[in-house]
Write a structure and sequence with these properties.
This protein has 192 residues and is α+β, with helices and mostly antiparallel strands. It has one domain (5-188): Invasion associated locus B (IalB) protein (Immunoglobulin-like, Sandwich). The chain has helices at 5-25, 144-153, 178-188, and strands spanning 29-34, 37-44, 47-54, 58-60, 70-82, 89-102, 114-117, 120-126, 135-138, 156-162, 168-174. It has an eleven-stranded antiparallel β-sheet. It is globular, with a radius of gyration of 16 Å. The chain starts with a helix and ends with a helix.
């Protein structure tokens, strides 16, 4: 069952709170660096969290303070399953291949938001109602698996966003090493 957009935002808020709580209890362990991607493992009260991360090779426009920019693909041992209200957790299931872009600034909700792999663009969105106003996800949860496969087959990922101040930005990530990094987190956090 795919998470709804509301469920995904709820998951992000739960994950943010859990990660803040877990930071004191369980620091992330580096599983390895594979060219331009690093694999990590951590845990929260629901179990293991494994993810890969990378920083952009290029940030545009030049001269702007972009802050820290990251791209993640996340596997969770137990990801919450939300009811139709998007708030009530009804159970847990393994979470595989959640795609996130973390900006160093608040993102404009109706800005130019998207991720492009070798010419194919996937629309993204941001929730501007709280602490997640710096995190972007693919517009459709159903796109996550295909996006991850495209990352493995691709050469370059470009993420575009618009800051809350109105600056249009672009970040280029190398996809070199992403397949090996994904294999590492799939081993560390197995699931379906």
């Amino acid at each position: 069952m795919a998470l709804s957009r509301i469920g995904r935002i709820g998951l992000a808020l739960v994950a943010l709170l859990a990660s803040l709580e877990a930071a004191a209890a369980s620091e992330a362990t580096k599983l390895g660096t594979f060219k331009d991607w690093t694999a990590w493992q951590s845990a929260d009260e629901n179990g293991k969290i494994c993810y890969i991360s990378s920083n952009p090779q290029d940030k545009q426009p030049n001269g702007l303070d972009h802050g820290d920019i990251y791209f993640f693909v996340i596997n969770r041992e137990k990801a919450p399953i939300y009811a139709a209200d998007g708030k009530t957790v009804t159970g847990f299931r393994p979470g595989r291949g959640e795609v996130q872009a973390q900006m160093g600034y608040a993102v404009k909700k109706d800005g130019e938001l998207g991720a492009t792999i070798d010419g194919k663009t996937y629309p993204m969105f941001v929730d501007t109602t709280g602490a997640s106003n710096k995190t972007m996800w693919l517009q459709s949860v159903a796109d996550d698996p295909g996006f991850v496969q495209a990352m493995k087959a691709g050469r370059e990922l470009v993420v575009k966003s618009t800051s809350a101040r109105g600056n249009n930005t672009s970040y280029s990530f190398s996809l070199s090493g992403v397949t090996a990094a994904m294999a590492e987190i799939d081993k560390a956090c197995p699931g379906s």
